[in-house]
Design a protein that fits this description.
Elements lengths: L3 H21 L26 E2 L9 E4 L4 E3 H6 L3 E7 L6 H16 L9 E6 L7 H8 L8 E5 L2 H11 L12 E6 L4 E6 L4 H15 L6
Parallel strand pairs: 4-5, 5-6
Antiparallel strand pairs: 1-8, 2-3, 2-6, 4-7, 7-8
Helix pairs in contact: 1-3, 3-6
């Protein structure tokens, strides 16, 4: 398992890559600042601890992944699974690239942990009219995530209804928060966290969800 020190050494390189992505896309991106400092992020800043949320049912939504395949969100990606889900848009040039870098590093960290290879990672575009499957695929490529990462787009109303049901909808995409939802569908446990927390801290939350599924919590 990579040590905290090794992860800390890797993260600056990922953030540099994210910064380069931002610079490359600056001509067509948008800035936004609706990301309240929400635990400890990748740069060491203390943020609010993850909290459980009363999310007992994920609605079904017909969406399209980064390869152009039709996907049933709940049936195909969430049912019976441990899941990490964040919310991005490709023309964002502030925190979304950093969230992408953090999400990819989380995937690599969890791949080294027991049960972590089976986690589903989902990014939902909050700007589906702009974010085609091709754009989502191009956006995610520099972060070098694992094959367990699915990026989703779809009809605006379908996406908006989904975001509202998850409690993450904002009228303006520029005002969306740097949130990550982590859940265990089998135990109906969902946790809301800060999407720019360190990958190690996010991984520890996912470990707890995996342990609960195995009946190890509290042992």
């Amino acid at each position: 398992m990579p040590s905290r020190r090794r992860i800390a050494r890797r993260l600056p390189a990922l953030l540099v890559a994210a910064s380069a992505w931002i610079a490359a896309g600056a001509g067509w991106g948008q800035e936004h600042g609706g990301h309240p400092p929400a635990h400890r992020d990748a740069g060491g800043t203390r943020t609010a601890a993850p909290s459980r949320i009363p999310l007992t049912e994920i609605p079904e939504a017909s969406l399209t992944d980064q390869d152009g395949n039709r996907v049933r969100l709940y049936e195909d990606l969430i049912a019976g699974q441990v899941v990490a889900m964040n919310f991005i848009f490709t023309t964002c040039t502030t925190i979304c690239p950093l969230m992408g870098a953090t999400f990819a590093q989380l995937q690599k960290e969890m791949a080294t942990r027991p049960g972590g290879q089976e986690i589903q990672y989902i990014s939902v575009s909050i700007d589906p009219n702009t974010d085609t499957p091709e754009r989502l695929k191009a956006w995610s490529k520099p972060f070098q995530g694992t094959e367990r990462w699915t990026l989703l787009t779809g009809r605006q109303k379908v996406v908006d209804d989904l975001l509202k049901s998850l409690g993450v909808f904002t009228a303006l995409k520029e005002d969306h928060a740097a949130l990550i939802l982590m859940g265990n569908d089998a135990t109906r446990t969902w946790i809301r966290g800060y999407g720019l927390s360190s990958p190690i801290e996010l991984a520890e939350t996912l470990d707890e969800l995996l342990a609960a599924e195995r009946g190890e919590a509290g042992r």
